[in-house]
Amino acid sequence: MKPAIILAENESRCLLFSGLLQTERSAHWRDALPWRQNEIRMFGKNHPEPRLTAWMGPAYRYASIDWPATPFSADMTRLMETIEQHALPQKPFNAVLTNLYRDGQDAMGWHRDNEKSIDTQSIASVSLGGTRDFLIRHRTSGEKWTVPLQHGDVLIMESMQDDFEHSVPRRKRADEPRINFTFRHIQTS
Ligand SMILES: O=C(O)CCC(=O)C(=O)O
Predict the structure, then answer these.
(1) What is the number of the ligand 1 atom nearest to the C-alpha of 182?
(2) DSSP per residue over the chain, as a string?
(3) What is the pLDDT of residue 96?
(4) pLDDT tens for residues 124-178?
(5) Does the CB atom of residue 125 touch ligand 1 within 6 A?
């Protein structure tokens, strides 16, 4: 399958494989994963994150959230291997953060996946369930892209975490739950 090129600037590229995983059942994944409601600390106060999350991969800590080392399930390994055949990361993926957006009130603010231990050369993001807009913004020019991510889509971000940030904003009318898997390579030593 040939991807659509969403953006290509200098060494950064964003590619979209539309419907690559459309035979995956989001209800299966919703039942199979141990969803957690984390809290984030902002301005000295704890707030529940506006989404549920789960993790498979090495022990990992970010933004005061601790994930214990959790092995990949057989199902997740199968999914990851399919994605790697298309994303062709230089280093194999070894971690996946999963997000459950229960409805249009759940969201993710502007951020970069640029923690020191993340290999930013290739990050692969899978969407299952309801369609949600994925926004990309250039950090200095402010140029913006809106990508409506649909069930089964696989978006690849290559070397984008220095110059671009991304978000999944609230959408009043998005009722259907959406699951996102974000595969990364995390440096463990
Ligand atoms: O839900 C998405 O598509 C984005 C997820 C994301 O940005 C992240 O997990 O860092």
Answers:
(1) 9
(2) -PPEEEEEETTEEEEEETTTTTTS-HHHHHHHS--B--EEEETTEEEE-SSEEEEEBS-EEETTEEE--BPPPHHHHHHHHHHHHHH--SS---EEEEEEE-STT--EEEE----TTEEEEEEEEEEEES-EEEEEEETTT--EEEEEE-TT-EEEEES-TTTEEEEE---TT--S-EEEEEEEEE---
(3) 98
(4) 999 999 999 999 999 999 999 999 999 999 999 999 999 999 999 999 999 999 9
(5) yes
Which residue minimizes the CA distance to atom 2 of ligand 1?
Answer: 180
Question: pTM of the predicted model, to two decimals?
Answer: 0.95
Q: Sketch the domain layout of the chain as residue ranges.
A: 4-182
Q: How remote is the CA of residue 183 from the centroid of ligand 1, in Å?
A: 10
Nearest-CA residue for ligand 1 atom 8 is 182
Q: What is the mean pLDDT of residues 24-36?
A: 97
Banded pLDDT at 48 (limits 50, 70, 90): very high
Architecture of the 4-182 domain: Sandwich (2.60)
For a mutational test of ligand 1's pocket, the pick from 56, 110, 125, 156, i.e. the residue with the most ligand atoms closer than 8 A to its C-beta, is 125
Residue 1 Cα, ligand 1 centroid: separation in angstroms? 23
189 has pLDDT over 80: no
